[in-house]
Design a protein that fits this description.
The chain has 188 residues and is of the alpha+beta class. It has helices spanning 2-12, 17-24, 28-36, 43-53, 57-61, 74-86, 166-170, and strands spanning 96-100, 115-119, 129-134, 137-146, 149-153, 162-165, 174-184.
């Protein structure tokens, strides 16, 4: 679906593959491989493509279920979060984003490498499963509250809970990426 939508949007704007490649800072052959379905852009590049056409990532990819391989790598997730923080935004995207589960802290329900679809939320709700950056590390945890403290717990006994104060959260010590709304299991 992505390759079809990409080509339609490019042609609708009367751009050649070379025109789009220049706008994105990639080669014409890269755009050609995307349109032929032989390669896919990174998640960061996918966001740039969507922005270039003025559409959402979901509209570009035909919905989140059709584009699982575009999950950002850990450095991309940090970059996205850093860019958002620079603009005063508490989440990285207005709709959804995808991340790869970084560790085994949530096994047996979520395994390392599983793809998680994250939906932006304005604040943390009790017992929700959230993705967040804390002290330059990516975490996925179920959250609970105890007075002025947020307790982010893992399912695995080997991963200790992470606790942070409401003040620390409000002062950018914790960057909320969003709530986990879908899981795509990695099989192999």
């Amino acid at each position: 679906m992505f390759q079809i939508n990409l080509k339609r949007l490019r042609e609708r704007n009367k751009w050649s593959q070379v025109d789009l490649a220049k706008r994105l800072g990639v080669s014409q052959s890269t755009v050609g491989m995307w349109e032929a379905g032989r390669n896919k852009p990174t998640y960061t590049t996918l966001i740039r493509i969507a922005n270039e056409f003025g559409v959402s990532v979901d509209a570009l990819t035909g919905g989140h279920n059709n584009y699982a391989p575009c999950a950002p790598t850990f450095p991309e997730a940090i970059l996205l979060a850093s860019e958002s923080a620079a603009y005063g935004i508490r989440t990285t995207l207005p709709e959804t984003q995808r991340i790869t589960m970084p560790d085994d802290s949530m096994t047996p329900e979520i395994h390392p490498g599983d793809l998680l679809v994250i939906r932006a939320i304005p604040s943390i709700e009790p017992e929700s499963l959230i993705a967040f950056l804390y002290k330059k590390s990516l975490y996925v945890r179920k959250v609970f509250f105890a007075e002025e403290t947020v307790i982010a717990t893992a399912l695995s006994a080997s991963a200790p809970p992470i606790c942070f104060s409401a003040t620390e959260y409000e002062n950018e010590g914790v960057l909320l990426l969003g709530e986990v709304c879908e899981l795509v299991r990695k099989y192999f």
